[in-house]
Amino acid sequence: MKVNDLILQTVTTILSFLIITFSIYIFFAGHYTPGGGFIGGLMTSAALVLLLLAFDMKTVKTVFPINFMTVSAIGLLICVLTGVGAMFFNAPFLTHTFGYETFPILGETALATSTIFDIGVYLIVVGVAMTIIQTIGESE
Amino acid sequence: MSNLVILPILIPLLAGTILLFFPRQLHFQKWISVIALSLTTISSIVLVQTVFNNGIQTLELGGWKPPFGIVLVADMFSALLVLTGIVVSFTCILFAFKSIGEDREKHYFYAFAQFLITGVMGAFLTGDLFNLFVFFEVFLMASYALIVIGGTKIQLRETLKYVLINVISSALFVISVAYIYAVLGTLNMADLGARVAEYGQTPLLTVIAILFLVVFGLKGGIFPLYFWLPGAYKAPPYAVTALFGALLTKVGVYAIFRMFSVIFTHEPQITHQIIAVLAGITILIGAIGAVAYSDVKQIIIYNIVTAIGVIVFGVVIATEIGYAGAIYYLVHDMVIKGALFLLAGAMFTITGTNKIKEMGGLIKRHPLLGWMFFLAALALAGIPPLSGFVGKVLLTQAGLSEGHYWFVAVMLLSSLLVLYSVMKIFLNCFFREEVLTEKEEKGSIKGLVYPSVILIAISVFLGVGAEVVTPYIMQAAETLADPTAYIQAVLKE
After folding, report:
1. Residue B493: what pLDDT?
2. pLDDT tops 80 at residue B444
3. Might you report a single GO cellular component term (chain B) (predicted)?
4. Does residue B56 belong to any structural domain of this protein?
């Protein structure tokens, strides 16, 4: 018997966008309010898992043709390189700095190098969570 | 401020990260590994020399002053262990090139090895208790992967036990850290040492000290917490066992030295007395195990246990000479255990078995392997021109002058048993009549012997060149015997 999951799939297409948007919001909010790279990454992978539940592995792989192992490797590289970057300015490893910039639409915004580190964390979490789920899902 | 201190951690971490991108390009994997390990070796040589000339080096990560930020500290003890650790891992990786097999290599073997080295180097260099925990987890995670990679039945079974034991001991570690934070309100080791010195070591702190002893005893393999070690180290291939045997237990020993020489030094009649009894029994258990088995790998594994007991006793003696002996023995033991495992790995490649009874007459076609094993066996037992001698002499001397007569007796007796156990391998496997003809040999050992030749050369140098090495060892022993230098270097009071 073929299961009709039209409702699940329709709702998922809308919801996954909402969840990803919220995860990005939570990621950027991390400096001043609860949130940050870890929970943001986990929520993004939750959206991807929802897609995996509603559709099958192949469909998700055609939508996101990404090797998630590489994603976490890129994240790790970003994390390490933000630390190394400080060494070029003759500061101790992992020294972070921040500054204020004025942008056309956003106005005056605080930019911190620790955000780059957090992007690394975000990518690692997404990569690792998705690698685990896909590996278990694919193994017979 | 010197970023030099972070290089032995940073280079393997970067290399491991890069290796994650190209798991299939095996030549690339090997080249990156070799380049990273050479760079790390060079940077740790520079580190040792800098510490020797300019005293203790610290690096305040992110520019935050201790005790508020994380601080990396390289005193001579750490620096020497970093250098020895990286040299031994270098040779293990060289051994792995020829022996580990394509299947394992494609499953991120070299990346995991780099992460293991990252964790070990970090544990040696950190000056912060929670950071020590994190680095312990880094190398334990990598070791879980290395021990299970390949997925044979025995590996799966032993990995389960190994992971279980280490998860429990890590949980205990976190609990101990929580207790000490609740009592003293800081996690920086130097600051902890200063506060315990100031307020006195209350009974509560002594209990926490013993809890830490249990944690690091589990990691390091002290009686009665060594029970997981023989099985777990038997499971993976020789290159991995050599890496584990030379590095992992020694990190537990290093942590015991740090804890009981910097922080918990004020109630030695309780804590150090317990360590003394446990170390003595550990030596005996290891020696008994080494004599009892007729399996090459198992014999060398039990010799690790013996050596742990001998080294840990240095903390009990707690004089400069005692520490110097323990450090000398620690450095020697990392080198020689690596060499022994690599030689046994080559023997396994030839014969396809670990059983002494199924080998014989290897010396006819493999004289270099045979005589290298002979030298390693003598060095392990502590025969004069080789490296094991100096450490044991210093320990004997310090033990006698401090009145630890029974320890000296046990240690010297264990040397005999250790010598007997490895000579049993040498005489039975290399002499007797030949078991295998040339055609029956399971594999070629081309390129498998020279990593252990490097290690044995270092061991000979440690013994013959004791005059050169001793100033470094003595400097390391000085900071251990007098922790105020360490505390002042970190807190800059």
Report:
1. 63
2. no
3. plasma membrane
4. yes
> Which domain does B341 fall in, by range?
6-491
Burial of A136 (0-12, 13-18, 19+ CB in 10 A): exposed
> Three-state DSSP class for B73?
strand
Chain A residue whose CA is closest to B13:
A80
Please report whether residue B1 resides in a domain.
no
DSSP state, residue B355? B
- Predicted structure pTM score: 0.94
3-class secondary structure, B72: strand
A140 to chain B, minimum CA–CA distance in Å?
16
Task: Note whether A93 contacts B10, CB cutoff 8 Å.
Answer: yes
Number of domains comprising chain B: 1
- Beta bridge partners of residue B72, listed in sequence order: B59, B126
**Would you say residue B434 has pLDDT above 90?**
no
Q: What angle do CA B101, B102, B106 make, to 5 degrees?
A: 125
Rounded-to-integer distance, Cα A25 and Cα A35, Å: 9
Task: State the DSSP string of A62-98.
Answer: HHS---HHHHHHHHHHHHHHHHHHHHHTT--TT---E
Residue given tokens 């270098």 in the structure block: B90
Query: Quick one: which of B442, B297, B436, B451 has its CA closest to B369?
Result: B451
> Which of residues A2 and B308 earns the better pLDDT score?
B308
**Residue A108: what are its φ and ψ, rounded to 5°?**
-75, 125
CA–CA distance, B313 with B402 (Å, rounded to integer)? 12
Q: Enumerate the residues of chain B whose CB falls inside 8 A of the CB of residue A94.
A: 61-62
CB B408 within 8 A of CB B484: no
Cα B208 to Cα B25, B285, B459: the distances in Å are 48, 26, 38
Does A104 sit behind a cis peptide bond, omega within 30 degrees of 0 on the bond before it?
A: no
Q: Which residues of A touch B62 (CB under 8 A)?
A: 86, 92-96
ipTM of the complex: 0.92
* 3-class state of residue B59 by DSSP: strand
In B, which residues are within 8 Å of A83 by CB distance?
Answer: 10
Residue B3 contacts A where some CB pair is shorter than 8 Å: yes
Contact B20 A73 (CB under 8 A): yes
Whether chain B has a CB inside 8 Å of the CB on A29: the answer is no
Selection from A38, A70, A74, A45 nearest residue A60 by Cα = A45
Residue by residue, DSSP assigns chain A as -----HHHHHHHHHHHHHHHHHHHHHHHHTTTSS--HHHHHHHHHHHHHHHHHHS-HHHHHHHS---HHHHHHHHHHHHHHHHHHHHHTT--TT---EEEEEETTTEEEEEETHHHHHHHHHHHHHHHHHHHHHHHHH--
By the 8 A CB rule, do B372 and B449 touch? yes
Q: Within a domain: residue B23?
A: yes
Report the gap between the CA of B482 and the closest CA in chain A (Å): 28
Condensed to tens digits (0 to 9), the pLDDT of residues B96-109 reads 998 888 888 899 99
Q: Within a domain: residue B283?
A: yes
B62 touches chain A (CB under 8 A): yes
Q: Rounded to 5 degrees, what angle do the CA atoms B142, B338, B463 make?
A: 140
Q: Give CA torsion, residues A85, A88, A89, A92, to 10 deg.
A: 70
Strand ranges inside B37-123, DSSP E: 57-60, 71-74
Please tell me the distance from the alpha carbon of residue A15 to that of residue A9, in angstroms, as a whole number: 10
